Amino acid sequence: MRRALRHHHVVDAWNVLRYGPAAPRVALRAWIAPADCQQAVQERFKLGGPLTRAASGRVLGGDWDLDTREVLAMRKIRCCIAHWRDGVAWADTGIYEYMLRRIRRFGVADGCTTLDEVVSRYERLDRVFAVVAREGRLRPRHEVRPGAFRESGGVYVHFARDGQPLFGVGGFHRLAMGLALELERIPVQVGVVHRAGVGRWRERLIAPP
After folding, report:
1. Is 96 in contact with 118 (CB distance < 8 Å)?
2. What is residue 5's predicted lDDT score, i.e. its pLDDT?
3. What is the 3-state secondary structure (H, E, C) of the chain?
């Protein structure tokens, strides 16, 4: 933990020194309108690529922000919105089949290895959704996990060269809750900011509630 904190301090200090006060910080909490997060980076960047959670707070050039797909076209997002917004039963959304394909391919999906575990997971997510709907907000990480470092583990969002937020393929269900409920703002963990967008990415942020 101490070593990780030292890393965070080094990255933060370097960013500010090189890019000024508008630079991102490691695991920084920011607030965005979920409806503004219309594009997502490709999933191949999620594991072993340059845009993992370990890259949070980095400033990175290149064309990674141009290789995207529509958030609403992503299977998990589609299934969740169909269930939470439109009232479609989980079994009829196709999410169980999708998760089982992931399990057959990778051995595990979201911590699940069997259909029963998948069903239980989505029942738990329904309970979380009920709380979010009742409160009208998505809680920041320190309220969910006391002692959490900034917004580490939150909905993961990168920022493109034009300052546009890009879903970083982390926190699918929480983003889907925000979209289904049409929340005004949600807390996110800032991921990677494009070098050409350092001066613009904060323009897309919303003030905390």
Report:
1. yes
2. 55
3. CHHHHHHHHHHHHHHHHHHCCCCCCCCCEEEECHHHCCEEECHHHCCCCCCCHHHCCCEECCCHHHCEEEHHHCHHHHHHHHHHCCCCCHHHHCHHHHHHHHHHHHCCECCECCHHHHHHHHHHHHHHHHHHHHHCCCCCHHHHCCCCCCCCCCEEEEECCCCCEEECCCCHHHHHHHHHCCCCCEEEEEEEEEHHHCCCHHHHCCCCC
Rounded CA-CA distance 114/104 in Å is 10
Taking CA 86 as the corner, what is the angle to CA 119 and CA 93, rounded to the nearest 5 degrees? Answer: 40
Asked if residue 166 lies in contact with residue 160, where contact means CB atoms within 8 angstroms, the answer is yes
- Contacts of residue 191, defined as CB under 8 A and 6 or more positions apart, other chains included, come to 51, 53, 55, 56, 156, 157, 158, 159, 168
Rounded mean pLDDT for each run of 10 residues along the chain, 209 residues in total: 65 89 94 98 79 93 94 97 98 98 96 98 98 98 94 97 96 98 98 95 94
Count of other CB atoms within 10 angstroms of residue 194: 24
Q: How far is CA 104 from the centre of its chain?
A: 25
CB 164 within 8 A of CB 33: no
